[in-house]
């Protein structure tokens, strides 16, 4: 059984034999001991204001969690205790609720502890989901930027190759002096294929054989890069 001790100072001189009635009466009234005695005589072991009681136990009932839409906290507490079938063991005051037996309070505490655990697990699940979505959005944004950058590098390389080798037919050496631009890593194999196409073109041009050279953009599509 829970209990507590109230200490009263009988005098100001710390004498074990001096008892000041007025001073003790003032302390008893100030500490609310008279009210405690009246409540205990009425048979109620626990009392609490409606807002504080509702704040502590509102997660027990679906009608009060997370917020109720009833006219007052008193009505919300009545609904809560009726759902728990404890309304026969309580009394409703003007500003406070009174519980007769400690068993009712212990049962409320057990239900509250169970619900708090479930609420914590739910909040953890929501927060972990939020973090996962944030990481996914960052990874997706990074992937989109990476893909756009790769497309930009590929297009820049293709345009530069096309610009440098655009007029090779009108050159005396058919473009042998033209320096190949540095390709991005993803186009290393594509550069080898382009050089092979150009070498075949150069050999056939040297032999004065007719040839039909496709554009580099069409070759890029054929390689599916």
TrEMBL record:
Q: Can you name the source organism?
A: Xenotaenia resolanae
Originating gene: MYO1D_1
Cited InterPro entries = IQ_motif_EF-hand-BS, Kinesin_motor_dom_sf, Myosin_head_motor_dom-like, P-loop_NTPase
Q: What is the lineage of its organism?
A: Eukaryota, Metazoa, Chordata, Craniata, Vertebrata
Which protein family is it in? Belongs to the TRAFAC class myosin-kinesin ATPase superfamily. Myosin family.
Q: What is this protein called?
A: Unconventional myosin-Id
Q: Please provide the record's keywords in A-Z order.
A: Actin-binding, ATP-binding, Cytoplasm, Endosome, Motor protein, Myosin, Nucleotide-binding, Protein transport, Repeat, Transport
User: What Gene3D superfamilies does the database record attribute to this sequence?
Assistant: 1.20.5.4820, Kinesin motor domain (3.40.850.10)
Q: Where in the cell is it found?
A: Cytoplasm, Cell cortex; Early endosome; Perikaryon
Residues covered by the Myosin motor domain: 1-113
Please give the SUPFAM superfamilies that the UniProt record associates with this protein.
P-loop containing nucleoside triphosphate hydrolases
Q: Which SMART domains match?
A: IQ (SM00015)
Q: Which domain of life is it from?
A: Eukaryota
């Amino acid at each position: 059984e829970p209990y507590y001790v109230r200490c009263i100072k009988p005098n100001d001189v710390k004498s074990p034999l001096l008892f000041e009635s007025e001073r003790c009466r003032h302390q008893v009234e100030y500490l609310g001991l008279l009210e405690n005695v009246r409540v205990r005589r009425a048979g109620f072991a626990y009392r609490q204001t409606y807002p504080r009681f509702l704040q502590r136990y509102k997660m027990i009932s679906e009608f009060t969690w997370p917020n109720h839409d009833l006219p007052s906290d008193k009505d919300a507490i009545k609904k809560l205790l009726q759902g728990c079938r404890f309304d026969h063991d309580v009394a409703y005051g003007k500003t406070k609720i009174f519980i007769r037996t400690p068993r009712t309070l212990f049962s409320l505490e057990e239900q509250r502890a169970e619900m708090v655990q479930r609420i914590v697990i739910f909040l953890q699940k929501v927060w972990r989901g939020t973090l996962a979505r944030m990481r996914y959005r960052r990874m997706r944004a990074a992937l989109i930027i990476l893909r756009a950058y790769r497309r930009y590098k590929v297009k820049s390389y293709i345009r530069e190759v096309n610009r440098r080798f655009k007029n090779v037919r009108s050159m005396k050496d058919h473009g042998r002096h033209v320096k190949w631009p540095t390709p991005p890593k993803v186009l290393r194999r594509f550069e080898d294929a382009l050089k092979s196409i150009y070498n075949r073109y150069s050999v056939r041009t040297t032999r004065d054989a007719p040839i039909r050279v496709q554009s580099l953009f069409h070759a890029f599509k054929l390689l599916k890069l």
